[in-house]
Design goal:
Radius of gyration: 24 Å
Protein name: Deoxyribodipyrimidine photo-lyase
Largest sheet: 5 strands, parallel
Strand order of the largest sheet: 3-2-1-4-5
Catalytic activity: cyclobutadipyrimidine (in DNA) = 2 pyrimidine residues (in DNA)
EC number: 4.1.99.3
GO molecular function: deoxyribodipyrimidine photo-lyase activity; DNA binding; FAD binding
CATH architecture of the largest domain: Orthogonal Bundle
CATH superfamily of the largest domain: DNA Cyclobutane Dipyrimidine Photolyase, subunit A, domain 3
Number of strands: 5
CATH class of the largest domain: Mainly Alpha
Strand content: 5-15%
Structural class: mainly alpha
GO biological process, one term: response to light stimulus
Number of domains: 3
Shape: globular
CATH topology of the largest domain: DNA Cyclobutane Dipyrimidine Photolyase, subunit A, domain 3
DNA sequence: AATAATTTCGG
DNA sequence: CGAAATTAT
C-alpha cells in the first residue's frame, strides 16, 4: 500500500454551500482520505462578476452556517481569497493534496475558470473531479429532435418530464474525516461581506434565515401549508404562498433534486404539484439558455431589439429604484426589494414591465439593479426573466404584452394589503383607490392624510400615454431584420 | 407569464 | 345594453 492513500483531497465549495445532496462531498467521503474543505473568494475581475450587495449579506450568513455544520463534524471550512487556480495551487503545495473535487457551476465565466483549472491540474499530474447537482439535469443533456438547444419553454418542460425522474439526492454524511486547518485560512469578518450601510440590510433577517436547516424547515412548511392551492395562490403577493426557495437555490444551500424529491408522493392536487415543479423547470430553462447563449446577461437574445431606442432618464430610473413612481403596486414591490432583499414573483413582472414599457429604460439597467439588491440574485434566472419581460428573450412575452399597474394591483392585491405593508403612507387610503391614489377625490385623500406630490408622489408617467409611446417605439424595430 | 378595442351573445 | 368572447397590439 503506497502512502498515496493518505494524501488529503481538497473539497472546493462554490455555489453549493451545503452538506446534503452534495455529490462532490459524497465522493470525497468514499475515498476514505482526509478532506480539506475550502471556499475561495474569487476576485470579480476573474469574470464571475461583482457580488451583489444583498447576496454578499446572504453569502456571509450562508458561509457562517456551513462553517458551523462542518465544525459540528469536527472540521473547518477554510476561507481563502484570490484567483482560484493560485489558491488551489498554494493549498496543494502546502498540504500535499493531489485531488480537487467540486460540484459544477454553469455560469459562463465560472465554466471558463473551471475548464482551465481542470486542464492545469491534470497537466501537473493531479486529479480534478467535478460532479453534477446544481441542476436537475445537465444543461447539455436536453436537446430538441433536431439536436439543437430549446428556445421555447413548453417543449423544454415536456423534455424535462420525459427525461425521467431527476437523480435521488444523497444524504449528508454523518461522519467525515477532515484534514488539518490551513494556516492561510482567513476569517469571514475580514471579508467584509456585510453592507457598510448597516441600516440597509437590517430588516433582511425578518424574512431570511441562512443555512441548510432553515432551508429544509422552510421547504417543509411550504409543502405542508401552501402547495395545496399553489397554482392560484402564488399570484397574490400578500399571501405567504410561494416557496421562498430561490435564495437557498442561488447559493446551493439546498439542491433542486432535494426539493423535487420532497415533492414526491404528497397528497395535493396534481395541478398544484406540477405547477410548482414547473417553477423549478423555469430555473432549469434559464440555465439551459445561459449555457447555450453565454451573452444572455447583457445581449438581446433577439437582436432585433439592438436598435430599440431606450430612454436614459436618470430621474425616472431613480424614482423606480426608490419606489417613488406614484403607482402603488410598483412602489410596494421596489420597497419590498429594498427592505427584504426579495420581491414576490408576480410583482417582479409588474415592476419590470413598468421599467421597460412605461419608462422605456433598458432592461439591462433593471437586471443590474436586481442583481445588486436581490438576496436570490442568479445569473441565469435574472437575465432570462428580464429578457422575457422585455420581449427580447427566448420564448418571451411579446413586447405588446404591457402590464397595467392599476389593473394588476386590483387583480392580485384586491384589498391592498401588500401596498399597505410596504407603502405605509397609503395605509389609510380607501381600498377603492389604493392602487390609484391619483384618481381619488380630494376628500378621500384628506381622510387618509395623503397629500399627493408631498407625502406620496404623483405618477411619474401617465400609463396610457406611456403605453402608446412604447408600442410606437416597438413598431419602429419589430420589422427590422 | 396582458390589455384595450371590437364584436358577438343573451336577455 | 351590459357581459362575454374574440381579436389586435
Amino acid at each position: 500500500m503506497s502512502d498515496d492513500a493518505a494524501k488529503p483531497l481538497i473539497l472546493w465549495f462554490r455555489k453549493d454551500l451545503r452538506l446534503d445532496d452534495n455529490h462532490a462531498l459524497h465522493a470525497a467521503c468514499r475515498t476514505g482520505r482526509p478532506i480539506i474543505p475550502l471556499y475561495i473568494r474569487e476576485p470579480s475581475s476573474s469574470g464571475t462578476g461583482p457580488l451583489g450587495g444583498a447576496q454578499a449579506w446572504w453569502l456571509h450568513h450562508s458561509l457562517a452556517s456551513l462553517t458551523a455544520s462542518i465544525e459540528a463534524l469536527g472540521g473547518t471550512l477554510n476561507l481563502v481569497s484570490g484567483d482560484a487556480l493560485d489558491v488551489l495551487g498554494a493549498v496543494i503545495k502546502k498540504t500535499g493534496a493531489d485531488t480537487v473535487m467540486w460540484n459544477r457551476r454553469y455560469d459562463p465565466p465560472g465554466i471558463a475558470i473551471d475548464t482551465r483549472i481542470k486542464r492545469e491540474l491534470e497537466q501537473q499530474g493531479l486529479d480534478a473531479q467535478s460532479f453534477a447537482g446544481q441542476l436537475l439535469h445537465e444543461p447539455s443533456r436536453l436537446k430538441t429532435g433536431g439536436g439543437t438547444p430549446y428556445r421555447v419553454y413548453t417543449p423544454f418542460w415536456r423534455a424535462l418530464e420525459g427525461a425521467g425522474e431527476p437523480p435521488h439526492p444523497v444524504d449528508a454524511p454523518r461522519k467525515v474525516e477532515f484534514g488539518p486547518e490551513l494556516a492561510a485560512s482567513e476569517t469571514l469578518t475580514s471579508w467584509k461581506l456585510l453592507p457598510t450601510k448597516p441600516d440597509w440590510a437590517k430588516d433582511f433577517d425578518e424574512v431570511w434565515t441562512a443555512g441548510e436547516e432553515a432551508a429544509r424547515e422552510r421547504l417543509a412548511d411550504f409543502l405542508d401549508e401552501s402547495l395545496d392551492g399553489y397554482k392560484s395562490d402564488r399570484d397574490f403577493p400578500a399571501r405567504q404562498s410561494t416557496s421562498m426557495m430561490s435564495p437557498y437555490l442561488a447559493l446551493g444551500v439546498i439542491s433542486p433534486a432535494r426539493i423535487w424529491e420532497e415533492t414526491r408522493g404528497l397528497d395535493v392536487p396534481a395541478d398544484d404539484l406540477v405547477h410548482f415543479r414547473k417553477e423549478l423547470a423555469w430555473r432549469e430553462f434559464s440555465y439551459h439558455l445561459l449555457f447555450h447563449f453565454p451573452k444572455l446577461p447583457y445581449a438581446n437574445w433577439n437582436d432585433r431589439f439592438d436598435g430599440f431606442e431606450w430612454s436614459n432618464s436618470e430621474t425616472h430610473f431613480r424614482a423606480w429604484t426608490k419606489g417613488m413612481t406614484g403607482y402603488p403596486i410598483v412602489d410596494a414591490g421596489m420597497r419590498q426589494l429594498w427592505k427584504h432583499g426579495f420581491m414576490h414573483n408576480r410583482v417582479r413582472m409588474i415592476v419590470a414591465s413598468f421599467l421597460i414599457k412605461d419608462l422605456m429604460i433598458d432592461w439591462r439597467r433593471g437586471e443590474a439593479w436586481f442583481r445588486d439588491t436581490l438576496v436570490d440574485a442568479d445569473p441565469a434566472s435574472n437575465a432570462a426573466s428580464w429578457q422575457w419581460v422585455a420581449g427580447c428573450g427566448a420564448d418571451a412575452a411579446p413586447f405588446f404584452r404591457i402590464f397595467n399597474p392599476v389593473l394588476q394591483g386590483e387583480k392580485f392585491d384586491r384589498d391592498g394589503a401588500y401596498v399597505r405593508e410596504f407603502v405605509p403612507e397609503l395605509a389609510a387610503l380607501d381600498t377603492k383607490y389604493i392602487h390609484k391614489p391619483f384618481a381619488a377625490p380630494q376628500s378621500v385623500l384628506d381622510k387618509a392624510d395623503i397629500r399627493l406630490g408631498e407625502t406620496y408622489p404623483k405618477p411619474i408617467v401617465d400609463h396610457a400615454t406611456a403605453r402608446d409611446r412604447a408600442l410606437k417605439a416597438y413598431n419602429a424595430v419589430k420589422d427590422a431584420a
